Amino acid sequence: TVFPAYDVCSTLLDNAGTLGFVNITGYSEAYENGTPAQTTQADGYAPVSSFFWLNSLHPLFTVHDILAKAISTVLS
């Protein structure tokens, strides 16, 4: 089975506003090394869950969750 991760990520980025992502081109230095909870919100920043990227390489857990559900659907 081949999973089209690129297509899913492209769809997420194309619909970022609808999905609640406030930043899809960068990341927050406040969150780049991970957070203690999915609801973390550092002073002066949007909540961690509203970012697409954790750091310059990794998407955030919210993106992972969506990818996992899509993969699960394909495998079902």
Q: Outline, from the CA principal axes?
A: elongated
| Whole-angstrom Rg | 13 Å
Distance between the termini: 11 Å
- What proportion strand? under 5%
The average pLDDT is 93
Structural class: mainly alpha
Series of secondary-structure elements, N-terminal to C-terminal: HHH
Number of helices: 3
The total strand number stands at 0
Helicity, as a percent range: 25-40%
Extract low-pLDDT stretches: none
Largest sheet: none
Output the keywords.
mainly alpha, 76 residues, 3 helices, elongated
Describe this entry's structure for a reader.
By secondary structure, the protein is an all-alpha fold. 38% of the residues lie in helices and 0% in strands. The protein has three helices and no strands. The longest helix has 15 residues.
Secondary-structure topology with pairs:
Blueprint: H1 5-14, H2 16-19, H3 61-75
Protein name: Carbohydrate esterase family 16 protein
Organism: Auriscalpium vulgare
In brief:
The protein is mainly α. It contains three helices and no strands.
